[in-house]
Structures are given as C-alpha cells and as structure tokens.
Amino acid sequence: MSESTDHPVADDDRPNTRERVEVTADDLPLHCPMPGKRLWDSHPRVFLPIADSGEETCPYCGTVFVLKGPAGAHH
Fold it and tell me: Are 51 and 65 spatial neighbours (Cβ–Cβ below 8 Å)?
C-alpha cells in the first residue's frame, strides 16, 4: 500500500520517522519513544543508557539519540 499524496502527513504523525535526535540532560532518563510525541505508542518504551556513551540507538525503530552537553546528575 503506498502513501497517498492527497493528505500530507507531518513527520511527527508518522511513527519512527526521525533518524537522529539531539537530547540534553533534561531528557534523562532517556527512553524511546520520547514523551510528548503524538505517536508515543508506536513501539514499546525502551530506556536507553546514553549518559556514559553519549550516543544510543533505539533497538525498535533505529532512531539515533545524541547527548549534547554533560549528563549531569541524572545518570
């Protein structure tokens, strides 16, 4: 089934469309899908241990999260 061009869909309305997301210490503990996303239930919530590595990939949708700045006291 192909996507109709008659009714364009915003990126936030499609599940797992963002490939790279920058996050800060305010977003920790990090999980995907992130809070506030319209499609918050597009896959099971998975917590990602980004504080030490600085970059993590969601095993469900492949979104890459990059930590900008220090992790702070959240980790």
Answer: no
